[in-house]
Amino acid sequence: MTSKIEKTSGEPVEALRLDRQLCFALYGAANRVTRLYRPLLEALGLTYPQYLVMLVLWEASPRTVGAVGEALDLESSTLTPLLKRLETQGLVARARDPEDERRVIVTLTEAGAALRDKAKAVPEQLFCKLNMPLDELGDLRERLKVLAV
After folding, report:
1. pTM of the model
2. Which CATH fold topology does 17-148 show?
3. 3-state SS string over 74-119?
4. What tens digit of pLDDT does each residue of 106-117 get?
């Protein structure tokens, strides 16, 4: 049995070209940025999603799981395994809220708070790897925030 490669007939539809897709440009950019973060975060013992959780907790701790999820736009079912791994690493502690047993409060441990000092260099190291002017990166970040709403 031989297979045939079917060709589409006619000219390509300009709007359907891969290089014209916003989703593909965002996908490629997100993958590149995540790959650039990987070695920086490995030095801290964190994955990229764990780093995001730690960023939220470095801003304010303690927080409820719901508040962390809201900050990251993640469901608690996605967040819970991340928090469990961070707890196993000794970076956070989780406990039921004594006033409302349905809520779980996440608190940085001493080790988690100390990791913040090591992480301070990550943004600058990433900016150097991106090789873009800081003002352009800032503009891009602000434009993406608008898109993400």
Report:
1. 0.85
2. Arc Repressor Mutant, subunit A (1.10.10)
3. CCHHHHHHHHHHHHHCCCEEEEEECCEEEEEEEEECHHHHHHHHHH
4. 999 999 999 999
